[in-house]
Amino acid sequence: MAVARTPGRGPLAGVRVVELAGIGPGPFAGMLLADLGADVVRVDRPNGSGLAIDPAYDVTNRNKRSVIVDLKTGEGPARVLALAERADILIEGYRPGVAERLGVGPETCHARNPRLVYGRMTGWGQEGPLAPRAGHDIAYIALTGTLGMIGTPDAPPAIPANLVGDYAGGALYLVVGVLAALHHARATGTGQVVDAAIVDGTAHLSSMIHGMLAAGGWQDRRGVNLLDGGCPFYGIYETADGRYMAVGALEQQFYTEFVELLGIADRAPARKDVARWGELREMVAARFKTRTRDEWTAVFEGSDACVAPVLSLREAPAHPHLAARGTFTDHGGITQPAPAPRFSVTHTAVHGGPAQPGADTGDVARDWDVPRLLGAATDEAFDPPEPRLPGRPSSKG
After folding, report:
1. With a threshold of 0.85, does the pTM exceed it?
2. Residue 136 annotated in active site
3. Among the options 70, 136, 184, 351, which is catalytic?
4. Catalytic residue among 166, 200, 228, 367
5. Over the stretch 233-251, which tens digit does the pLDDT of each residue have?
């Protein structure tokens, strides 16, 4: 019997996603798919994910629904397979081989659903000497050379939170991968496995830098290049009140406006005179120290000097531009980034707070026609999967 698609909002309305609970990039990828309108069902563990945050505040679980399944029990794998049979995408973030040992690996899932896109999110990838080892964002970006690029030359590399590895090099590449594979599956009826490794994605992010390195336009050390703080008109400067302004006046026309508004146009060295960059940096730094951040913000307001105040996380939502665009939104008492990007027809929104573990079991069991989620299943779940035509769910569940 064909199962009706769950109503949704956004360009991915009608797409069903199973997210096997984890931490870091997996939940963020699931949130992005949910923000775009997919019906994301998070399969939580009985004792939680191990992340030290109250589930009520974990916005990476917004717009999702949650069921609890213990994959280490006899019935657990069958319940996940019943969901996978009705899904378009499944994402997991276990170490290589763990999903297989739990009975929900790609081969088992594809036996139930040949069209399924199976997304695997790891730091090291599914193969290679480090594949079975533990790790976190900082180690992944360290090996790719990316961490070593960030910071000043006279200090250790600066840690960019977990934005570069977990989220940019990991979650975003996983989402791109599973959506590309979904396009292929809908065209051909054949699913596949997407191996999204943070080391691969983070390395890929540095493609332009590698090109510049090969061309001799980038030195393989931090704090001496055009985009890493080595350039005096692309950097961060402290103001009189201990806050900061960010300067990105790279092109000549922007630089000209910058030095005029800063008040050093009559004595600033030519921007292309690299030998005098140190002198220029000291001059710019001294000027910024004469006024507060807000005073300098007013000076550069409305200009093309490419200068902006460095705001805190709590300050950012109130900035007039971000407020006008609705870049941040309030939902359930939590101020949080709104879904991105934006669509002219299939609008997106935060329509549900963080999914509470197990709270949606009944609704998912009904909407996805998977009654065994309610514990009403029999040992039928462990029978060999019955044959099915591509795109047509079987009667098992």
Report:
1. yes
2. yes
3. 136
4. 166
5. 999 999 999 999 999 999 9
